[in-house]
Design brief:
Blueprint: H1 2-9, H2 16-24, E1 30-37, E2 40-52, E3 56-66, H3 75-89, E4 95-97, H4 104-112
Parallel strand pairs: 3-4
Antiparallel strand pairs: 1-2, 2-3
Length: 128
C-alpha cells in the first residue's frame, strides 16, 4: 500500500490494512489525491472541507507527503494545486494546514505557495 509506505516517511507507522479501511470510508467532504511519477504513486495529499463554528467553511490539508526520493520534481506543487482546486470546487475560499515545528522544509514549501504563518500553538490530546 503506497499511501501507508509514504506515511512512514513522515513518521506515522500505520498498518496498510488500516489505511485501506480509512480510504474506503472517505465521505464527500474528504479526498486523498495522488501524485504519480512514471505511473507509480509518488505522493499524496489528504484534504477535507468542513464548516466549523469559528472559521466557517474552509479546507484543511490533513496529510501531505511526496516520496523523499523524488522531492523537488514538482509533484508536491501539482498536488497542492489539485488540493486547492478541490477545495474551491466545494465552496471554500480558505485552505489551512498544520505542520510540525520541526518540518522547516515543509514550512518553506507552503510559504513559497502563498501560505502564511498565522500562529503557533500546542496540540493536546487525550486517549479515550
Amino acid at each position: 500500500m503506497p499511501v501507508a509506505a509514504l506515511m512512514r516517511q513522515l513518521g506515522y507507522d500505520v498498518p496498510a490494512g488500516e489505511v485501506e479501511g480509512r480510504l474506503r470510508r472517505l465521505d464527500a467532504r474528504r479526498a486523498v489525491l495522488l501524485g504519480l511519477r512514471d505511473g507509480e504513486i509518488a505522493g499524496w495529499v489528504g484534504v477535507c472541507v468542513d464548516e466549523d463554528v469559528v472559521a466557517g467553511l474552509c479546507g484543511f490539508i490533513e496529510g501531505f507527503v511526496v516520496d523523499e526520493a523524488v522531492r523537488g520534481e514538482g509533484i508536491g506543487e501539482r498536488l497542492l494545486e489539485s488540493a486547492e482546486t478541490w477545495v474551491r470546487a466545494r465552496g471554500a475560499s480558505l485552505l489551512r494546514v498544520q505542520s510540525n515545528v520541526v518540518r522547516e522544509r515543509a514550512h518553506a514549501f507552503y510559504e513559497r505557495h502563498g501560505f502564511e504563518k498565522v500562529k503557533a500553538q500546542y496540540q493536546l490530546r487525550k486517549a479515550l
